[in-house]
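ingest -> validate -> predict -> emit
validate: passed (alphabet ok, no gaps, 285 aa)
predict: started
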Amino acid sequence: MKKKLPILLLILSLILVAIGIYGVVKSRNDKESSRMHTTLGGYSDTDHHPMDVKKSADDYLYVSMPEKTPGYIKDYTGFRVSFNQDNHTPNWVAWELLGSETEGGVARNNKFWQDTEVPGCPTTRDYSNSGYDRGHLCPSADQKWSDQSMIDCFSLSNIAPQDHNLNTGAWKTLENKERQWAKRDSAIIIIAGPIYTPNDKKTIGQANVRVPSAFFKILAAPYLKNPRGIAFVYPNMTAPGNMQQYAMSIRELEKLTGFNFFSRLPEKEQDILEMTASFNDWNKR
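emit:
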């Protein structure tokens, strides 16, 4: 990537490359999983192709992590969570967003809830008067297509402490962009999560929900004739400037986090999505 990261992100990058972030996928809950296994493709050969063969969204909604960090997997209606019971926040949240789902009629319900099936999931009280927003990893505006997906979206297993200025500023701008891009490309894959360093000692609430230094988001359009991917990293604070300043390749993000995204794909297909990141290609109409 030719653009230089802001100084804050460069420092964060060096720290995370040195120490890595560890995790492991331990289990999987298949409840409400039918939405996650819908076969994609279905586009005309003239306009789209799913790389080598047609795959289900499930092939893209899986992240391999190094061992020894908790990672409880649960499939909700419309998205998948890997939850870290030590941090009391997700390791990552992954979902497929269809263009048709961006204009659903289900209203935001604002009813946050504790999922007692998920080990370490905090309560709403843990965020009360904390100084941090209940920051969605999978945003409610991506889940307007289903009453159940909207309810599931407000599970605190899909939430992390987020600075208000980031939540209502740059992060919201990115969320709006992902919906525009899903409409344009018919379907995109999205993976989001918090980023921690060893210095992130601050916690909130009785559950000691850990506050992250930054957040990442991956966008991939694997069904186009020319598949593409891109990643963004935002510090957990006001993030001035344009989106391009916070963009990087998925491979660069893997070096920061220690995660292996799209690990179920053949290496050639991973390279197509992960090696380059053209913000201009993503941002064109």
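The chain is about 20% helix and 25% strand.
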